[in-house]
Amino acid sequence: MKRFKKVALTLLSSALMAAPLLSSCSPEGEKQSDQSSQVNATVKSIAITKLPTKVNYESGDVFDPTGMVVTATMSDGTTKEVKDYSYSKVPLQASDKKVKITYKGRTAYVEISVEFVLKATAISIEELPTKTNYVAGERFDPTGMKVVAMMNDSTKQVVTDYDYDKKEPLTVKDTLVTITYQNLKTSIVISVEEVNEVGIEITTKPNKLAYLVGEKFDKTGMVVSAKKNDGTTAEVDMSKVTFDKNEALTINDTKVKVMYKTFSATIKLSVSTSKLTGIAIEKEFTKKIYWQGEHLDLSGLSVLANYEDGTNKKLSVEEMDIDKDVLKKEDDKVTISFGGFKQEIAITVKEKVTSVVVDSIKTVRVEAEHLDTSKAALREDFIAAGRTFIENGNDASNGQNICGYNPGSIFEISLSSDKDFEVLITARMSDTNLGYEINSGLEFSVDDKVIKADNVEFKYNGGNDYWHWVSFKIGKVALTQGNHLFKIKSINQRPNIDYFDFKVTKYGEETGATKCTGLSLKTAPTKLQYTAGESFDPTGMQIEATFDDLTTKVLEPTEYTIDKTVLTADDTKVTVTYEGMTLDIAIQVGKKYFAKIDGLGEKKVEAESLDFSGCLFRDDMAAAGFTSYIVDNGEASGGKSIERYKEGSKFSLDFLTGETSKVKFSIFASECNNQKFDDMVTVKVDNKVVKSNNPTMSSSATSQYYNWQEAIFDLGELANGDHNITIEMTNGRPNLDYVSFYTSKYGTEEVGHTLESLKIATNPTKMEYIVGETFDKTGMVVEAYYSDKTHETVTDYTIDKTGALTLEDTSIVIGFGGKTVTLTIKVKAAVDFLVDEPKTVIKEAEDADWSTLNGDAAGVQAESNEHSSGGKSIGHIAGGYLQYTFETSEEMSLVVTVVLAKYEPVKVSELVSSFQIDGKDATFDDITLGRVDGNDYFNMKECAVTCGKLSAGVHTFKTNFKGGPNLDCFKFTFTK
After folding, report:
1. Class of the 2-115 domain?
2. Fold of the domain spanning 120-193
3. Residue 30 pLDDT > 70, yes or no?
4. CB count, 10 Å around CB of 710?
5. Which CATH number fits domain 833-975: 3.40.190.10, 1.10.285.10, 3.40.50.970, 2.60.120.260?
6. Structure confidence by residue, pLDDT tens digits, 592-608
7. Contact, 339 vs 210, CB < 8 A?
8. What CA–CA distance (Å, rounded) separates 604 from 110?
9. Contacts made by residues 111-116, CB under 8 angstroms, sequence distance 24+
10. What is the DSSP code (8-state) at residue 673?
11. H or E element in which residue 98 lies
12. pLDDT, mean of residues 786-792
């Protein structure tokens, strides 16, 4: 057996070594033929003696030699058909004209033709489907998936007619889905998990949700369901459900945690000290209209919980149960619950229309932001900026539109009907790129038949002004019953798209009429300015109506109506009506003016002629039986003034200037509250706040209520025409006498500029002085008032008192330009100390001014001793006086204790001739002085001087000496 195997291996080896002599192996991809039996002859040439069956190709095909015969001519003159020739298997291109055939170093050519045909060479997934995670039993959903084919011209195309292999219910073993397009394949990864419980939900709330403090949670009536990852639910056994609140509830308990297995949910409840009686909606949420799929917006919602004891509580969103979140088309209300009580708020949810179902004569609008963008490509700059196709364009229908797509993008809208129908298609778009034909930039088609739209002229003013929306007609098409496809393809333009309207004009045998959608003023009427009492004249006016098929028509005067005949001063427009549509035409009707400025000088108007329609009558005046704002007043101009209104009252004065004018407006008013006029009253001219010279409103010596002050407002230069002044009592209610308009310039005329008076607008900082000081003008503002009602601040005024002030000085006279104004001041004597409360003030004698004292031969001098206050006293007094000046802030009684001593036993009256207060002698204790126990000179004793009751003000205490005591101090004791 072993010997047999060895022989077999030897024979096999010999056969393999001899093989090259018996056959020829063609290169990879070449076809082979049997080796010629004539092994000695060589190939001289080859020729194509029969063309292949296929000589016409499309780009991308590979050459097919089927049917081709190649004949070799040998060196010995013989010929033979050969099959082991070679040729290129590279895909053909449109530039290829022939194919090279090679055999044993000899070549021949086959002429071919190659036509370029666009074909896919590979596919890829550019955007994954929305859903890639599944539960066993679900089916693969390609929604959102974007498949892109790489073409043989190096471009990319989005393809939709792809196929995929997973069409049966998925199992956990499925991990890939293979996508096929024109025999090209790619795949996406998916995950599939088993059906499991993933959570719980409260299917039915317990019967009781409102509790009093101390009660226990009661689950009666509650149903809990387990949620599964396949979207289904199943009720759970309530005996297996637990709760975190099992004890008596407290005021802080607002929810109960419901637990099942590893899952939990919460249920809100109310715990209070008083029984909950209901809930009330204090304010509804702001947003009431939604698109299906939007989240409920609770902004603005305010809900109150009401209790049996009369109290209420504002609920937070966390405390309430709201039954809606993501909204569905059928949702028409939102239910708000708390503690078992409910309230409802009506809402509207609109359907997102992405297709057109024709079932009647109607118009269907498809908002562009609801279109499918799976066949559109977003601009690279939008992608880089994190933007999407949807923008919030100004004045866009529903507030949104689409833009940012690249040329080549396609948007599709399906149409369907159970009857033959006709539909008019219109669009609303805008663009910043101008001057192109809409049909060259976009292609509109229905069932791949191109529709030529009416051309449209877009507008763009530069910058961010992107949204000049223009409506235009795409076309009207007649379609059979069934399904159809309207397609918009971007060729080389990309206008912003707001919406498409599909107006069904025929449905079966039913035909719809056109409807007016708006009116516009093509030509204005000849006359637009009127005076009260005239009738509106439509002569020259042309009204153009626009219809829902975008046609227009100029209306005849008999086709529309006008709402005004005889005009009043309040009329600012007339309204034209046609088929339910309206158009306002602005007009001007002459007003009733409060005043007309027609020349130089003053125009005075009594306040009682003002319009009181904006006034509010004071409640106390009404209660007292008064009914009129006008008061008979002997102290007022014209014998009348106006008052009795309250804060918030407003007067409006329309006035006319016949020429460009410089005007001062004055209000003559009075009030007794010492307020500044501008702090009480707000005045506006042509709706702009103006300020006055801001006089202080206060009583006078002769009148408590009617100290009339002039508040002057510089209105500046006013153009000729209508103007308005409003006077609003914002923080007060001054009485009004009259108002005046003073015109210093009218057209080219002007009045003179003569100084009439001076006024101290702001008092100087210092108004009180000490005798000997000089007047200080710091802080003082002096204003000069002229005949043309102008005024200015002046600084080059004169002052009549420039020297040291005396007690007799009570005023300062300021002069300028021959006019004067007087400022009242106060001058006081110099004081040694101030007294603002009951107290004792000690003045040491050694610190006094000795210049008024007479001394003996040794002279008045201070002497140190241990018996004196402060350690010193003064002695060697022979006569003269000492005095102290002081000021009290209020009425007080004063006793001055004079501390003094003398070697000899003498009475105080032998040394002091008198003690005086404000020049009058005061009584004193006439004690006896003298040495004691060796204290010869400084046996200090206290002499009480009774000064009596002193008024608030400056006072002087004076001690007149006739002898020489040793003087320690003066103790001033002030009491009430």
Report:
1. mainly beta
2. Immunoglobulin-like (2.60.40)
3. no
4. 16
5. 2.60.120.260
6. 788 889 999 999 999 99
7. yes
8. 115
9. 111/55, 112/55, 112/56, 112/57, 112/63, 113/55, 113/56, 113/57, 114/57, 114/58, 114/59, 114/61, 115/56, 115/57, 115/58, 115/59, 116/58, 116/59
10. S
11. strand 98-103
12. 83
Instruction: Name the nearest CA neighbour of 569 among 441, 722, 444.
Output: 722
**Amino acid letter, residue 125:** I
Quote the tokens at residue 456: 């449209």
Give pLDDT tens digits for 217-269.
Answer: 999 999 999 999 988 999 999 999 999 999 999 999 999 999 999 999 999 98
Six-digit token pair at 491? 């060729």
**Interval 328-383: pLDDT, tens:** 989 999 999 998 899 999 999 988 888 999 999 999 999 999 999 999 999 999 99
Q: Could you name the CATH architecture of 595-660+668-739? A: Sandwich (2.60)
Residue carrying the six token digits 């297709």: 355
Handedness of CA 219, 221, 226, 230 (dihedral sign): negative
Distance CA 615, CA 621 (A): 14
User: What DSSP string runs through 804-849?
Assistant: ---TT--EEEEEETTEEEEEE-EEE---SEEE-SSEEEEEEGGGS-
d(CA 706, CA 672): 8
Residue the block writes with tokens 């550019």 = 126
| Residue type, position 155, single letter | T
- Residue 519 class from Cβ within 10 Å (0-12 exposed, 13-18 middle, 19+ buried)? buried
Cα–Cα distance, 81 to 49 (Å, whole number): 9
The SS3 call for residue 964 is coil
| Cross-strand partners of 835 | 888
pTM: 0.36
d(CA 958, CA 614): 68
Q: Does domain 517-589 have CATH number 3.40.50.1000?
A: no
